[in-house]
Amino acid sequence: MTINVTDPDRNEKSDVRDSVEVLIKSTTYPLGISVTLLETDVNTGVFSGRIYIKETGLPGAYEIIARTGDTITVEYTDPYNETGLEEVITATASVGVPMPTYPVPASTPGMLSSEFTPVTNATVGTQVYINATVTNTHTEALYVVVFVQVLDAEGHPVYFTYHIYPSLSAGLAMSSLDAWTPTEAGTYTIRILVTDALVGGKAISEPVEITFEVVA
């Protein structure tokens, strides 16, 4: 079982690979074990490690006791979250329960006017809101990053933002609204990408997009 943590703040040394600690528990072994994750390379801010699951006995180095049907919980203490406070981030997985290829599908994005009514096109100089919704269809909470892009007719990004949901509960949907004001007329595309990490993450939704016109 591979564990990944993305936390650019913990990239403290520019010339060596840093490390972070996580606590791993299971239903069978709730006491848990502490595991060190090593930065994937210098200056990546991405930390990774592998643990092994066995059903009986006592855990050895990088081993957790768990049986089929158990829930494995990983806890990472982020010293400085987006608001500058300490936060414990958890992720869970079920032993023997496979994850779907795209467990957090994004719905087709939409646009809203300043009065929050749906619109299909936009006007230069008039603000619109981009709406994106994702749903966790897996049986466990997942770390989710939603990227929102607006591309011009040549595929160049003219707007970009992202939203992080550190522990999106199973079955829960989350929506975002992002304000954007077009400055030039033309054909544009809204594209939504969903991954399991801010940097170097794996896609957990197929990309979804819509094309629309901006008029003068």
Which terms summarize this structure?
216 residues; mainly beta; Immunoglobulin-like; 2 domains; six-stranded antiparallel β-sheet; five-stranded mixed β-sheet; 17 strands; elongated
> Helicity, in percent?
under 10%
Secondary structure class reads mainly beta
Along the chain, the helix and strand elements come as EEEEEEEEEEEEEEEEE
CATH class of the largest domain: Mainly Beta
Q: Tell me the number of strands.
A: 17
CATH architecture identity of the largest domain = Sandwich
Largest sheet strand order: 1-4-3-2-7-8
Shape: elongated
Distance between the ends: 54 Å
- Under CATH, the topology of the largest domain can be stated as Immunoglobulin-like
Number of domains: 2
